[in-house]
Amino acid sequence: MPHAVTFQKVSRHFGSVRAVDAVDLEVEAGEFFAMLGPSGSGKTTCLRLIAGFEQPTSGHIEIFGETAEGVPPYRRNVNTVFQDYALFPHLNVADNVAYGQMIRGVGKAERLRDAEAALEMVKLPGYGARKPGELSGGQRQRVALARALVNKPKVLLLDEPLGALDLKLREQMQEELKTLQKALGITFVFVTHDQGEALSMADRIAVFNHGKIMQTGTPEEIYRRPKTRFVADFVGSSNVLSPAFTRRLGGPAEWASLRPEDIRIGAEGGHEARVTGSSFLGNATRLTLDMAGEKLTVLLPAGSAVPAPGASVRFSWEPSALHLMGTET
Amino acid sequence: MTAAAAPGAILPGRGGLGGALSDAFWRNPKLLLFVMLTPPLLWLGIIYLGSLFALLIQSFFSIDEFSGLVVREFTLKTYGELLRPSNLDIIVRTVTMAGLVTIASAIIAFPIAYYAARYAKGRWKAIFYLGVMLPLWSSYLVKVYAWKLILAKEGILSWIFAKLHLTPLIDGWLALPVVGGNSLSVSPTGTFLVFVYVWLPFMILPVQAALERVPTNLLEASADLGASPRQTFSHVLLPLALPGVIAGSIFTFSLTLGDYIIPQIIGTSHLFIGMAVYAHQGTAGNIPLAAAFTVVPVVIMGIYLWLAKRAGAFNAL
Amino acid sequence: MRSDKQSRTPMGLKIAAGLGLAFLHLPLLLIFLYAFTTEDKSYQFPPPGLTLKWFAVTWNRPDVWEALGLSVRVASISTVVALVLGTLCAAAVSQTRFFGRETISLLVILPIALPGIITGISLRSAFNLAEIPFSFWTIVLGHATFCVVVVYNNAVARFRRVSGSLIEASMDLGADGFQTFRHVILPNIGTALLAGGMLAFALSFDEVIVTTFTAGQQATLPIWMLEELVRPRQRPVTNVVAMVVVLVTFLPILAAYYLTRDGDQISGQGK
Lengths: 329, 317, 271
Prior knowledge:
- Chain A has nine helices and 18 strands.
- Chain A has helices at about 45-50, 95-105, 110-120, 135-150, 165-185, 195-200, 220-225, 230-235, 245-250, and strands at about 5-15, 15-25, 30-35, 60-65, 65, 80, 155-160, 185-190, 205-210, 210-215, 240, 255-260, 265, 270-280, 285-290, 295-300, 310-315, 325.
- In chain A, helix 2 (about 95-105) packs across helix 3 and helix 3 crosses helix 4 (about 135-150).
- Chain B folds into two domains: about 20-50, no CATH class; about 85-315, MetI-like fold, CATH 1.10.3720.
- Chain B is built from 14 helices and two strands.
- Chain B has helices spanning about 15-25, 30-60, 75-80, 85-120, 120-135, 140-150, 155-165, 165-175, 190-210, 215-225, 230-260, 260-265, 275-280, 285-310; strands spanning about 60-65, 70.
- In chain B, strand 1 (about 60-65) and strand 2 (about 70) form a beta hairpin.
- By secondary structure, chain C is mainly α.
- Chain C is about 75% helix and about 0% strand.
- The two termini of chain C are about 45 Å apart.
- Mean pLDDT of chain C is about 85; it is low at about 1-5 and about 265-270.
- At the B-C interface, helix 1, helix 2, helix 4, helix 5 and helix 6 of B face helix 1, helix 2, helix 4, helix 5 and helix 6 of C.
């Protein structure tokens, strides 16, 4: 079985800006793949390269083993859920969902039946006669999903699909998307800047920065064993320790990542630091520590005693929690 | 199609000329742009700009005084002719009229635009909008004709003044030099009134657009900082509305500069630029001088537009 | 006290705005009154009596019908040309970012921004230079040139609303360029084009300044009226024609307004 999507040294330049810079990428068939990164990191351009809205400046793209560069979007068996949903305002919901089949010449009765089935799948049965303007944001999102899935694409692309929804709805949709993907077995590639979303939904994640992929791996790998300072900081805002600081804490002279929740505060052992601030987060409390000019963030689980700012505390961690990232980067 | 064996990741093309063209346009968006822009650019660039340019060139030709034929040799003689006192009179008269019409339009337009932008709501807003649009778009000649009816000696204006026993007021005004004349319909006053009437909507719309763009909270902020409504008006609203007034003045000024029908129908025998152009190209057959005359409003408008652009008026268009 | 000032309209403003609107509309109403006057030698007010007979007289005037026919034909063809050129221009300007789009906008607006007499005399002298005789088509040429801008303005405003992602969504769902145009772009800009076309028709139907230079001996309805204005011969017939012209131009304006009111407004600068 070939990979769902393969990038070989793919670059996309806009003038002098290298939006995507010699990216190699392999998405497995049937997996839920996340492209994570800050805005302007090239993740959305990669998605658009797969969809066919952009053409690579150089490099080679394959979709299920077939060459994709030079193929227009309407000839790719790939569908997209757009960030702004891009529902056609002049068509009702059923005609929006049936649009792809209408273009392919599927008869009216058949395509409307398929559209209704797709709407049922996204839990909007009977909404076919409404206009997109009459729907809520969450409902539009489901329609956009149905409109893409009804074509049974080989790959479904999702561009920040949950960005415009409020927190509660977003968590619910995350769950549903995951269930849907497992049930349909379609390869999902989705773009997000929200590391929590990527960690909770994806089978594998590619972390982007400055047009390059910094690291690809399972959520566990990305979180536990970040390869670079950027990944450590961007995914879960870890404490990134300089080689000098790592040495002072008893490790080798290498860059290191120490997760805030892995640090324990106690009366004895470990190292001494001063508390410079604390903020209550509901399920935890975030402390900032200062150890002779070096800053550390600590997450205390709910219910722990919170030392007052200015107090002197001792902190320690399990040896396995300190993740080393080499001397470079 | 759905019943067929599972299709691959890349689908075959639709085929045919449409499919091939569509693929070509997708691969090369510049080609599509070229195809879209060629017809309008040919039309406007070649026919229109070409004609304008040909006209400009002819202003550098001259006319042979004996044969009356155009001599196609480069000369500035025609421009020398343009600067004769009698022709300068025409230019000064036209520009003065355009300036006065613009000022009057701005004064009359402002309350209408201000009311429509800030106070009219819902249905009244629509009524105001149509109330400006309908006169704007209704026939230019009919509007001029209406004023011929109004300003005629036996017309409604004289009748009203007679009823109010104010006829001496009109007679006194008409007896004045420069602005007066035999009757209102053959006086510069009449010409001025018709110009203001016909171009007024062109002033209202951009001013209204500019006023509508002033966020309400800006006015509230001004009031909050202790400004009286009058101070808010003169220090906040008026400066922000100015680009709209300038945008409107481009229309009123330019339209007055080039018009030759209104002063011909309602006005004295003194020429305006448009009438001079018409006379020189028509009966006199002096195309070079007519062309040189048209350069005057173009140059004036060029300077005006440049100044307006610097004042940021184009955003209000 | 501040909120009072906000919500209550100052009386002086109300009066000034009302007087302004009255100034705009009373002259047009007067046209309606004069169409019924019995007086046929002068513009006497108030009319000595009212009659409907001038409508019948006008109805039987072949020269009026001829001029009307020419105007309608010129306006129709000019509108079609302006629709094609204006839409192409608007599509190019709004769908792509390219060097020189400001220049294109300026070029489209120029025939309206420059005084009509300049457009007129330029075209006339160009016809002379190229030895093109005056005809139906020389009138259309001039009219289409300045009608492009109204279609362009309406279409550009609407194209802006047809966001780029709608076109991408259509292509993503399998529609090629032509299918996308037919199924997505056209339905979304249709009413704007219709409105633009109606305004272009009204603009052409009414144009006189450029027409005097490009018509030769032919008389459109405005040319016919202009002759009556310069040398009044048939005052009552002119009165009736003026009233009909006002009514006829109101219809497309109202229609264009209703077509575009939810969303962008029809652009008023195109005249």
